[in-house]
């Protein structure tokens, strides 16, 4: 109030005598004089001046701030179920930053929580279709455009318990693990026993050892599904085969072939059949032959018999295979360590490329054997 009074007194000297008729004396404790001074300042500056000024000390200000009443919590509006006219699918439309979106995505952002809760994050129409065709249980599906939902119309009608949520595209982009969100994000239950839908499955098992790059592991599983192999064993220490990067690297092949993970080496002999041959793929052949000693010679894959089973062990590019893989070779007859000859300017092949060379050579042997047996029978 003192500040306004000082400003007012500078202007009072320029006013006419008629304007000062109510200020016969200096403003004192008289409330009328204070009211007249406030009215005069309001006329001069065009603003309302407080008539009762209460100066707050820092202590008083902190007290008022701590004891102020909290703002009422904003209640989330009830999300009503709607029906899309084109697809005839029921969905809920969620506002921006809805708690359902936040809680679900925060749960899936942590890899440990995903494994603990047995949840799986799948993005994109193709991967979601592969998961649904494999009868993997879907809990929630987030989408932004009805056109994307229309492409999954026939598949989603067979899953009545799935919850569909339409959210803003910026929310999908915020929580997506891709640079550009595909517009579809599904929450699935981690599959346990995938039954391959392929025919003429070859009696081949592939053991993945020390593969810590998700894209490489996804490519390995994709090659095994394309052959097709019987199963894939992912040893403990490898990356998660159902990680989002592994799923994209495998193009959804994890939903087309049996994938067991994580497996300890002590349990491998119980999983593999007794009539089995183990082939270990190793690029550092000279280091391997040092310990334990292994005879190095030119080797041709044997002609497969009816009761014969083959197991191929493939390692990562950096660490290779572990010593347990060579110990596994000693448990089965006709086992060998495979080395693919390369030019001197190339040190090694990609993990998936090396496996493709070995597996398709095995398949060629199977096909030649079957042709020979058909000729003999006829």
From TrEMBL:
GO terms for biological process: methylation; RNA processing. GO terms for molecular function: RNA binding; RNA methyltransferase activity. Coiled coil: none annotated. It comes from the Eukaryota. InterPro entries: Alpha/beta_knot_MTases, MRM3-like_sub_bind, Ribosomal_eL30-like_sf, rRNA_Methyltransferase, SpoU_MeTrfase, SpoU_subst-bd, tRNA_m1G_MTases_N. Residues 56-82 are annotated as: Disordered. It holds the Pfam family SpoU_methylase. One of its GO terms (cellular component) is cytoplasm. Residues 121-194 form the RNA 2-O ribose methyltransferase substrate binding domain. Keywords: Methyltransferase, Transferase. SMART domains: SpoU_sub_bind. Residues 59-70 have a biased composition (Basic residues). Belongs to the class IV-like SAM-binding methyltransferase superfamily. RNA methyltransferase TrmH family. PANTHER family: RRNA METHYLTRANSFERASE 3, RRNA METHYLTRANSFERASE 3, MITOCHONDRIAL. This is Putative spou rrna methylase family protein. It comes from Nyssomyia neivai.
């Amino acid at each position: 109030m003192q500040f306004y009074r000082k400003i007012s007194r500078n202007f009072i000297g320029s006013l006419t005598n008629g304007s000062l008729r109510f200020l016969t004396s200096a403003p004192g404790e008289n409330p009328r004089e204070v009211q007249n001074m406030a009215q005069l300042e309001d006329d001069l500056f065009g603003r309302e001046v407080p008539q009762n000024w209460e100066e707050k000390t820092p202590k008083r200000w902190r007290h008022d701030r701590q004891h102020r009443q909290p703002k009422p919590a904003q209640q989330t509006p009830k999300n009503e179920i709607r029906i899309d006219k084109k697809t005839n699918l029921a969905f809920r439309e969620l506002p921006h930053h809805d708690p359902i979106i936040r809680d679900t995505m925060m749960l899936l952002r942590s890899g440990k929580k995903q494994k603990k809760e047995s949840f799986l994050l799948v993005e994109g129409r193709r991967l979601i279709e592969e998961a649904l065709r494999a009868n993997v249980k879907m809990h929630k599906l987030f989408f932004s455009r009805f056109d994307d939902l229309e492409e999954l119309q026939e598949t989603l009608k067979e899953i009545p318990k799935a919850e569909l949520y339409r959210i803003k595209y910026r929310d999908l982009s915020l929580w997506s693990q891709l640079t550009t969100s595909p517009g579809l994000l599904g929450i699935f239950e981690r599959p346990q026993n995938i039954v391959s839908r392929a025919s003429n499955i070859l009696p081949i098992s592939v053991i993945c050892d020390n593969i810590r790059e998700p894209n490489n592991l996804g490519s390995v599983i994709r090659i095994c599904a394309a052959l097709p192999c019987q199963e894939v064993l992912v040893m403990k220490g490898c990356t998660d085969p159902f990680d989002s990067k592994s799923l994209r690297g495998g193009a959804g092949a994890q939903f087309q072939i049996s994938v067991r993970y994580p497996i300890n080496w002590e349990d491998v002999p119980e999983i593999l059949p007794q009539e089995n041959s183990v082939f270990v793929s190793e690029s550092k052949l000279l280091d391997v032959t040092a310990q334990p000693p292994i005879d190095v010679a030119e080797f041709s894959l044997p002609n497969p018999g009816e009761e014969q089973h083959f197991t191929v062990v493939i390692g990562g590019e950096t660490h290779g295979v572990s010593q347990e893989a060579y110990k596994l070779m000693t448990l089965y007859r006709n086992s060998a360590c495979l080395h693919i000859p390369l030019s001197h300017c190339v040190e090694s092949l990609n993990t998936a490329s090396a496996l493709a060379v070995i597996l398709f050579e095995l398949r060629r042997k199977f096909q030649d054997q079957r042709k020979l047996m058909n000729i003999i029978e006829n």
